[in-house]
Every structure is written in structure tokens, then in C-alpha cells.
């Protein structure tokens, strides 16, 4: 319960979700340095506002970086990269492209040699493995 942890309560979790509000712009509140703490995300999630149909959710992400200094980092650390992505899982009940009927593409050819291209593509289309 340090002063820094109270003021930066957003850093205690990696992911926060709140309903959109134009007044909620900064995860640690409007005046972090002058606050006693408990403002921002920690205050907003305690309100337990519903997130449902007709509501725009806001996803707040916070990723800390643990850094062990190296001699190359002195006097200024060159870079520390952090990334993340949202990827849907089970969003659709199927994939329509799986049911597309097979049609050979005559423009697609093998890159081995001009003479073996048609023989190779015919063998692959017929289910045989071509060397």
C-alpha cells in the first residue's frame, strides 16, 4: 500500500474493462501526482456499471516490463518492446470457405522447371505426391 501503488492502481492488473464514458480518459485519474490515490480505474470498476448491449466497452491494458540492466543500456536504454493482440476465438460457428468446391487453378504452376510444372500440378491435383 505505498503512495505510488495507491496513485497508480491501474498497474495492479493487466486488463481492465469499463463502459465508455467521455470523462474517463486517464487510467490513474485526472490529477495523479496531486491525488491521495484510489482514482481512475480502481474507482470506476467499483461502481460496477453493466457492460452489455448498446454499451461501448473500453479495454484498458497495462503491461509492465521487468528489465535487468546491461552495460549496453548505459546511459540510455535503447528500446524495450511490448506488444499484444486481440484474436477472436469461437466467434463464428463455422468457416464458410471450408465448403467451397474444389476447382484447380490453371494459373498456379510449380516453380521447379517449366517442363515439369504441368506434370507436378496434375499429380498433386490427383492426390499423388510428386517428387
Describe the protein's architecture and organization.
- This protein has helices at 3-7, 41-46, 117-125; strands at residues 15-19, 57-61.
- It is α+β, with helices and mostly antiparallel strands and 131 residues long.
- Strands 1-2 form a two-stranded antiparallel sheet.
- The model has no long low-confidence stretch (mean pLDDT 78).
- Following the backbone from N to C, one meets helices and strands in this order, namely HEHEH
Helix content: 10-25%
Which spans have pLDDT < 50 for at least 5 consecutive residues?
A: none
Shape: flat
Largest sheet: 2 strands, antiparallel
Number of helix segments?
3
Distance between the termini: 67 Å
Beta strand count: 2
Keywords:
131 residues, alpha+beta, two-stranded antiparallel sheet
Quick rundown:
With 131 residues, the protein is an alpha+beta fold. The chain has helices spanning 3-7, 41-46, 117-125, and strands at residues 15-19, 57-61. The mean pLDDT is 78.
